[in-house]
Amino acid sequence: MKLLDSLFPIVHWPIRICIALTYLVHGAGKIPYPAIIDNFGIPPAFAYFITFCELSVVPLLIIGGLINFSLFNIKDFLTRLGGLIVIATMIGAIIVVHNSAWDYRHEGMEFQALLLSCGLYFLVRGNKV
Q1: What value does the mean pLDDT of the chain take?
Q2: How far is the C-alpha of 35 from the C-alpha of 43, rounded, in Å?
Q3: Looking at the domain assignment, is residue 56 inside a domain?
């Protein structure tokens, strides 16, 4: 049990890294033009904004966990902002793309719900691990 307790201060890193890599791959896949979003009737300017939001999650979660700068508690702010963006993008993805059902076989929303839950964790907890 002491071994598990000793991991508590660093156990957030696999979650941060997995979310960051997921958002990096999905965001970068929409560059130079997020044409895939056109299929859903979203205006190009908003599609670029979504791409920007997805890519901004990467530095927010990683830098938010790394920096040792306490002015205005910026670490906590960056992590919480990253969590908020994850929540917003996943709610949008569920509503626009994955609203069919909780079905892993055909465009279900279970993965998006998992990411949304992780975003909620970082929004609520910030860097208080």
Answers
A1: 86
A2: 10
A3: yes
